[in-house]
Design goal:
The chain is mainly α and 67 residues long. It contains three helices and no strands. Helices cover 78% and strands 0% of the residues. One of its GO terms (biological process) is translation.
């Protein structure tokens, strides 16, 4: 969580895209029965929520915001 707060807005957008891609890939792997580790998906979804929360906080305070 502390790393997310220190990260720049551009890096947050990039990280958010990476995490969303990881969740998407995980869903396709599960459909093909390639993976069994459900915890990885839960962790990625929680990271996405943390990133979005930080973005919303920054928008409300007007600090380091990407439009």
């Amino acid at each position: 969580m502390k790393e997310i707060k220190k990260t720049s807005a551009e890096d947050l957008v990039k990280l958010l895209g990476e995490k969303r891609e990881a969740v998407r890939a995980f869903r396709f792997d599960i459909a093909g029965s390639a993976k069994k580790n459900v915890k990885a998906k839960m962790t990625a979804r929680k990271e996405i929520a943390r990133i979005l929360t930080e973005e919303n906080l920054r928008k409300s305070t007007g600090v380091n915001v990407i439009a």
